[in-house]
């Protein structure tokens, strides 16, 4: 697509010659307008945009230098080349001060002018390309930061209110609505037995590959999205939608099928999916996610794609009670809280004892599914050795009764109890090391995955422990530490804002400024001026 040039000269024959002689098409330009003086040119510039302005200096009504001054004051980004028959350095100097790209004397040497235009436009295109690349980079940085925040929201680790500084000045973020899709691996199927045998490194690579496939597929469809890995083998896909757009389950099902097919084709794994039945705003995301996850875990025979909450009357009070108990039990196992584990095991046993044969038959697949998920969580926590884990999986691959399932649960929870004290001490050591690691590396683009790997924990378990230990999420902690360091550097040093941004882990000054303003309510320049002025007054 060609750019546009505006020709400004009070001599009509010059503008006609410029239109005819200069090879505009070859230069990637078209003549978008002509004007006889600066006033006419300003009127044209107010109604449409031009990439290049060629203008004479001496003109009636408004001369070229006055025109350039007005253009720069209005912030118009057009490049400007001046034309003049006056060999006066004062004009050249004034033109340079106004940011004119070049200066060509009359009579116009058209070959030379063509070369000047070519150079100016080449520089302009290179600058636009760099700006586009920078914008994409900043956009991706914002997307990654958003995914970290969204993970904390889904897990209910952070409060979603306009008072939370992460959303300060970003009320539109709270007003967005999302399609929510949960994708999960059926760890009990024959197809996924290899997954159990993979090393931690292999599973991390596999999880990373699935995330990339999902993002690429969503991007190809032009969907503004976030892909958040919840745990090993489970992802939540959020697709941002227009507020005025009606919920279309048929279209969302098509998107989900595309995602499942892409994972199957590229990663050779079959996942199943749960779709939330309506849009969810950011405040409802955690509850929506829990409803879909609950529906998927309470469904003994899982369809590849299901919608939750469903219309079936099967979700009885017994089912809900089982879900509540199992959720509390898994949470207690992850925390190493043996007293709660014992209490919830008693509840579970009591629930099973009250059931008749028919209820027990319906409940058995559900209980089996629960044990599988308990195993999945303990795998991330590293409770068992590889040999112990293999024996438990071997048991679960066989057909056996309720008592056998309860026996596995007791074995798992007993192992947690035996290791809980050591685990707690290890967790404290891990969090202390994580804090020290973050302190040493604030200048880098840190991710929760890298911090978790450094202390030898899974991302989801690390996030849970971090929140429990420091009472704030990873992203809240890291951003707060960076902002406090930035405040100190702004108040106490004369380092440039770009340099300070890099020292606290932001490669892009504009992104740093955006985060700083959300945290403090001020831009870095104003913050520095105010605090250094206070210091000067105190010293005087």
UniProtKB/TrEMBL annotation:
PTM annotation (4-aspartylphosphate): residues: 56
Subcellular location: Cytoplasm
Domain named Response regulatory: residues: 4-121
A Pfam family the protein falls into: HTH_18
PROSITE patterns in UniProt: HTH_ARAC_FAMILY_2 (PS01124), RESPONSE_REGULATORY (PS50110)
SMART domains, alphabetized: HTH_ARAC, REC
Protein origin, superkingdom: Bacteria
Alphabetical keyword list: Cytoplasm, DNA-binding, Phosphoprotein, Transcription, Transcription regulation, Two-component regulatory system
Positions of the HTH araC/xylS-type domain: 432-530
The protein's name: Response regulator
